């Protein structure tokens, strides 16, 4: 072979070998690069689909190109179903990709997703897209809302809430605690609750509470606590340990509620029940007591009318009548209390009632009390119930006497007219300008501090020991004065005594303008059936009516009276009957009589009208109902109106 040909051969061999080497190297590099790209792709896909975060990738046209499995799991939609869609075309993606977006999950549940969006260069095209990463924060938001709700509830709770650390140092108090105790939140933070409680109670008692709490037990109880306002409140309290997941005590929470007002209401309810029982008792005995008063007043007046003016016994009978009338008015007041009805007001000369009340008080007050009167003779009149004025004077004076017990005292009572003008400095703020009677009761007793003065008119509030008073006296006085359109003021200092000023609107009458003396009722000649189980009252009523010209058939038995009526139904023009009687009551007797004579009027007399309704009595033919003890003139006028068919003028008692 020629040398040139041989050289060419070897050159071809070498070139071929080089080409093979280059091809082999390229193949190795290509295979290696492809494997690396595959591994990188698998790694990215693994991260994309195994992460709990929601990941979506959008191309330059904002079309969805990747939708990881977390998104599929949340929405129930596969990647192929949403590929190529824009965000606005996805029904479950409400609100876009803002910071917090509500997505509709599988089953229609709303989930809150927090999104973050980052620009992204797409490696296969070099185009700019974006990647959105979302985290489901629904549970966190619910927990935050619960915490906010709890915080709001604690802040606005009516009960006091205090939270401490494990050492008992205060780390939180709610506004209710500050309102109740008077201690500001800043004042309490970092302070020992143990010391704070101990300052207001028995330290040994506090130690027992905290020893129990240290053992992990809850303590509950009712305690009386002092406040920053120098007052006390009754508190229902529960203190509970706060533990972590290992059971270690990390703090304490105290929840308390002011039950002072509730206890006061309970006390008032018990007192009201007691007073209701008294009212029931009063009604029960009123009938018999009024029967006795009717006899006393009736026979005394009848005897007095038969005596001459100069007879020495006349003055004694006048005193008997005065005392009996006072007793009658007192019983009427008791019955008014038991029936809860309005009282009867009329022009009253206050000076006479004041003098009469003080006469009664002189006998009961100790000799160490010097009573001084300063009563203007021209003090005028007020429109009131005389019994209430009497009660007002008695309560104010007995209250003053109690304040002076233990040492000599001076009780000054004054009554005078006072004109209060628009610019009068002495005019109380709640009183209109005008003419008033000012009744003042002054003592030099122990006096009152400001806190006591602020509460003296509260029902059931009293500074007296148990058994010395119910705390109703001054509240009754306040109620009487207010109902009469007046007001009451008090001035007092400890150890300097007390003075009460009572202002009552003066009536435009003078003492000389009092109502006319009692008018004699008209006479008649009709026949009356009179029934009462008390023989004295039958005799008294018979005499009163016979003195007016009537013919009276009196009976002490309702059954006998009914039998007498049945013998001659047309004989009678009127029936007068007591209500409470054996066998047949007054209304039952009226019903049986009216079944025979529907035209026969009936007058019912009762000592206590509870349970007797006006409609019920009217249904059986009762024309008038009179309350015992009955004044003779009232009975005479009622008889004439009933027989003549005129309407009654008396208000229904009860």
Characterization of the model:
With 654 residues, the protein is α+β, with helices and mostly antiparallel strands. It has 4 domains: 47-152, PAS domain (Beta-Lactamase, 2-Layer Sandwich); 157-258, Beta-Lactamase; 271-311 and 519-654, Response regulator (Rossmann fold), CATH 3.40.50; 350-513, Histidine kinase-like ATPase, C-terminal domain (Heat Shock Protein 90, 2-Layer Sandwich). It is 43% helix and 23% strand. The protein contains 19 helices and 22 strands. Strands 11, 12, 13, 14, 15, 16 and 17 form a 7-stranded mixed beta sheet that branches. Strand 16 and strand 17 form a beta hairpin. Residues 466-472 and 509-516 have low confidence and may be disordered.
Write the layout of secondary structure elements.
Blueprint (H helix, E strand, L loop, with lengths): L2 H48 L3 E5 L5 E4 L1 H7 L3 H4 L17 E5 L5 E12 L6 E9 L1 H19 L3 E6 L4 E4 L1 H7 L3 H4 L4 H6 L4 H12 L4 E8 L5 E12 L5 E10 L1 H46 L6 H28 L6 E3 L1 H15 L4 E7 L5 E4 L1 H18 L5 E12 L13 E10 L6 H6 L17 H11 L3 E6 L5 E10 L19 E5 L3 H13 L3 E5 L2 H10 L6 E5 L7 H11 L5 E5 L7 H6 L2 E6 L4 H13 L10
Parallel strand pairs: 12-14, 18-19, 18-20, 20-21, 21-22
Antiparallel strand pairs: 1-2, 1-5, 3-4, 4-5, 6-7, 6-10, 8-9, 9-10, 11-13, 13-17, 14-15, 15-17, 16-17
Helix pairs in contact: 9-10, 9-15, 11-12, 12-14, 16-17
**What is the top-level CATH class of the largest domain?**
Alpha Beta
Category by helix and strand content: alpha+beta
Task: From the 3D structure, determine the CATH topology of the largest domain.
Answer: Rossmann fold
Q: Indicate the low-confidence ranges by residue numbers.
A: 466-472, 509-516
CATH superfamily of the largest domain: Response regulator
Number of strands: 22
Estimate the helix proportion, in percent: 40-55%
CATH architecture of the largest domain: 3-Layer(aba) Sandwich
Average residue pLDDT: 78
């Amino acid at each position: 072979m020629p040398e040139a040909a041989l050289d060419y051969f070897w050159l071809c061999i070498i070139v071929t070998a080089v080409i093979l080497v280059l091809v082999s190297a390229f193949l190795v590099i290509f295979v290696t690069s492809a494997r690396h790209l595959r591994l990188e792709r698998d790694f990215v896909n693994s991260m994309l689909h195994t992460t709990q975060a929601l990941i979506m990738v959008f191309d330059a046209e904002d079309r969805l190109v990747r939708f990881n499995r977390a998104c599929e799991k949340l929405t129930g939609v596969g990647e192929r179903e949403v590929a190529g869609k824009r965000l606005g075309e996805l029904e479950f993606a409400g609100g876009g990709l803002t910071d917090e977006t509500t997505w509709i999950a599988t089953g229609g549940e709303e989930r809150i997703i927090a999104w973050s969006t980052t620009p992204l260069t797409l490696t296969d095209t070099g185009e700019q897209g974006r990647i959105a990463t979302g985290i489901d924060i629904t549970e966190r938001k619910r927990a935050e809302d619960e915490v906010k709700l709890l915080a709001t509830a604690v802040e606005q709770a009516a009960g006091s809430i205090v939270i401490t650390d494990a050492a008992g140092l205060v780390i939180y108090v709610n506004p209710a605690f500050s309102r109740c105790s008077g201690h500001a939140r800043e004042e309490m933070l970092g302070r020992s609750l143990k010391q704070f409680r101990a300052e207001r109670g028995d330290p040994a008692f506090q130690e027992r509470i905290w020893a129990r709490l240290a053992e992990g037990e809850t303590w509950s109880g009712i305690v009386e606590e002092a406040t920053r306002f120098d007052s006390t409140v009754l508190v229902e309290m529960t203190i509970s340990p706060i533990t972590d997941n290992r059971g270690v005590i990390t703090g304490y929470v105290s929840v308390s509620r002011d039950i002072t007002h509730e206890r006061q209401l309970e006390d008032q309810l018990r007192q009201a029940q007691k007073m209701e029982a008294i009212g029931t008792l009063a009604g029960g005995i009123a009938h018999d007591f009024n029967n006795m008063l009717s006899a006393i007043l009736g026979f005394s007046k009848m005897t007095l009318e038969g005596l001459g003016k100069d007879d020495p016994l006349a003055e004694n009978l006048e005193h008997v009548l005065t005392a009996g009338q006072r007793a009658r008015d007192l019983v009427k007041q008791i019955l008014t209390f038991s029936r809860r009805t309005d009282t009867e007001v009329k022009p009253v000369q206050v000076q006479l009632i004041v003098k009469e009340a003080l006469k009664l008080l002189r006998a009961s007050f100790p000799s160490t009390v010097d009573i001084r009167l300063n009563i203007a003779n021209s003090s005028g009149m007020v429109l009131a119930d005389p019994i209430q004025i009497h009660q007002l004077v008695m309560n104010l004076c007995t209250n003053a006497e109690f304040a002076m017990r233990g040492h000599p005292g001076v009780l000054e009572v004054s009554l005078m007219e006072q004109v209060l003008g628009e610019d009068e400095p002495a005019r109380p703020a709640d009183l209109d300008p005008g003419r008033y009677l000012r009744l003042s009761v002054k003592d030099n007793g122990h006096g009152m501090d400001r806190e006591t003065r602020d509460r003296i008119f509260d029902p059931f509030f009293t500074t007296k020991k148990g058994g010395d008073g119910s705390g109703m006296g001054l509240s009754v006085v306040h109620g009487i004065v207010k109902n009469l359109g007046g007001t009451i003021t008090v001035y007092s200092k400890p150890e300097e005594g007390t003075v009460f000023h009572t202002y009552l609107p003066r009536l435009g009458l003078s003492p000389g303008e009092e109502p006319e003396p009692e008018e004699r009722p008209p006479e008649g000649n009709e026949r009356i059936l009179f029934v009462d189980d008390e023989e004295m009252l039958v005799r008294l009523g018979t005499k009163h009516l016979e003195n007016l010209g009537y013919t009276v058939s009196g009976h002490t038995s309702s059954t006998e009276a009914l039998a007498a009526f049945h013998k001659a139904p047309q004989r009678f023009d009127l029936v007068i009957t007591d209500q409470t009687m054996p066998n047949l009551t007054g209304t039952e007797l009226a019903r049986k009589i009216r079944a025979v004579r529907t035209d026969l009027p009936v007058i019912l007399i009762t000592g206590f009208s509870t349970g007797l309704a006006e409609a019920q009595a009217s249904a059986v033919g009762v024309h008038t109902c009179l309350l015992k003890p009955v004044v003779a003139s009232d009975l005479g006028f009622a008889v004439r109106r009933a027989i003549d068919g005129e309407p009654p003028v008396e208000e229904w008692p009860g």
